[in-house]
Amino acid sequence: MANCRNCGAVLTGTLLTCEYCRTRQDVDLSVVHRFTVETPLSERICPRCHIPLQTVDLRLKEKFLIERCERCLGLFFDPGELAALLEKAVTNVHAVDPQRLNEVQGVKRRDEYPVTYIDCPVCRRLMNRVNFGSRSGVIADQCREHGMWLDGGELRQILEWTKAGGNLVRRESELELARLELEQEKKKLQFARIDRAFLQMHPESARHDLELDLLPMIGRLLKKLFR
Questions:
Q1: Pair 159, 55 in one domain
Q2: What span, in angstroms and rounded, lies between the C-alpha atoms of 50 and 102?
Q3: 40 with 122, same domain?
Q4: Nearest-5° angle of CA 126, CA 17, CA 19?
Q5: Residues with Cβ < 8 Å from 53, sequence gap 6 or more?
Q6: Would you say residue 179 lies in a domain?
Q7: Residue of 55, 30, 32, 60 lying closest to 42 (CA atoms)
Q8: Interior CA angle at 14 toward 11 and 19, to 5°?
Q9: Is residue 169 included in any domain, yes or no?
Q10: Which H or E run includes 140?
Q11: Residues 153-203: pLDDT tens digits?
């Protein structure tokens, strides 16, 4: 059983927040995967602490490098790395646990950082704030070109959200949205076919309707010209 890193109490529920001292628990990479510290390939700066990030290798059968801040425990993932880590760390999720999912999605982060935009550790440009997975409740910071930043504790919440079936819910929502968009496109196509058939059967009527539609626009143009 895991213990709170602040007061030592036994953690229950989703293991995200201590019920006694309300301290949010940051993920310990040594628990998720064995890792080794590597020599950084390039200097990347923590957007919170403004110090160089530590490069760690999660050793997922082959080299798997991510950046980590030793001070705030924030993590930076290059594009595709977070999805790859989740795929390795969370397996055999075939059903949604609604109660657990609601609990994880309802977790509020500590008020240690103001709601603001922060710099990308690589290019130093402001990153976008995105709700990871559309509905996880984790507001991550993303640079479209270089990757995603997670503050300390947010990886744990994403892992718990994924274990509770969050990705399954997201995929169902995406499929439903795609289905609705397909239905709309079918309706548009049907209306277009009806319009074409009507034009072929009643060309004079269609031209008359077009002229009627143009009359108000012509009137407005004439008013502007002769004011």
A1: yes
A2: 34
A3: yes
A4: 150
A5: 40, 44, 45, 46, 67, 68, 69, 76, 121
A6: no
A7: 55
A8: 45
A9: no
A10: strand 139-143
A11: 888 889 888 888 888 877 766 666 667 777 787 777 777 677 666 666 655
Q: Which domain holds residue 68?
A: 34-164
Element (H, E) at 212: helix 203-225
Kindly state the tokens that stand for 177: 């949205």
Tokens of 104: 């994880």
Nearest Cα residue to 66 out of 77, 74, 80: 77
R_g of the chain, CA atoms, integer Å: 27
The count of residues in the chain is 227
Closest-CA residue to 53 (of 35, 71, 29): 71
158 in the same domain as 71: yes
**DSSP code of residue 62:** B
pLDDT digits (tens, 9 = 90+) for 81-128: 999 888 888 878 888 888 888 888 777 766 668 889 999 999 999 999
Reported as type and span, the H/E element at residue 75 is strand 75-77
Same domain for 188 and 86, yes or no, is no
What pTM value is reported for the model? 0.66
- Return the residue matching tokens 């109660």: 99
Say how far apart CA 157 and CA 172 lie, in whole Å: 21
- Residues 59, 89, single domain; the answer is yes
Residue 147: φ, ψ to 5°: 140, -160
